[in-house]
Design goal:
This protein has about 180 residues and is of the alpha/beta class. It contains 7 helices and 7 strands. Helices cover about 45% and strands about 20% of the residues.
């Protein structure tokens, strides 16, 4: 009898959370606050790519690295196996669905994104590309296509109050997950 190999995650008592969204939506700040509030370990994929050379060179035009998705996934597999991680990255489709218990897609008004990216010193072509991505809902659609609808949470991230509310919502999810997944 032929059988298909199905990769499953071991049961975990603490969830893995992915915080994603267009650059400038507040992923880094929000994921840092979530990790602190919920007792999760934070992983910023962009930093991991740079630190561990998980790329195929540098794109001068957009001032960014050419991401090697296979290297990133291989590097992160063991990190996420046990749960308890809050991952911050601007895209989500490359990650295996089994890794995450909640996918938070942060959204922001384009004027907010513009101001935030300008303050970071992004090149104008990079600012414009990211504004267009937010208008076209690229990250939200990718999350909706890549994960089950019940684990995708779209949240506005324009103000400090919204960010604080978002952290509270995710921390409540983590608490409930832990309560219902205690072994």
């Amino acid at each position: 009898m032929d059988s298909e190999l199905i990769i499953t995650s071991p049961p975990r008592s603490s969830p893995n959370i992915l915080v994603t969204g267009t650059p400038g939506t507040g992923k880094t700040t929000t994921s840092e606050l979530i990790a602190l509030a919920a007792g999760l370990e934070k992983v910023t994929v962009g930093e991991l790519v740079k630190e561990r050379s998980l790329h195929d060179g540098y794109n001068e035009e957009f001032d960014t690295y050419w991401l090697n998705e296979d290297k990133v996934v291989d590097e992160m597999e063991d990190m996420l196996a046990g749960g308890g991680m809050c991952v911050d990255f601007h895209t989500c489709g490359m990650f295996p669905e089994r890794w995450f218990d909640l996918v938070v897609v942060l959204r922001a008004d384009t004027d907010k994104i513009y101001d935030r990216l300008e303050k970071r010193g992004y090149k104008q072509n990079k600012v414009q590309e990211n504004i267009e991505c937010e208008i076209m809902q690229v990250v939200l659609e990718e999350a909706q296509e890549s994960y089950q609808p019940e684990i995708v949470m779209e949240l506005a991230s324009n103000t400090v109050e919204q960010m604080e509310s978002n952290v509270e919502k995710v921390a409540a999810f983590v608490e409930e997950f832990r309560r219902t997944h205690t072994q």
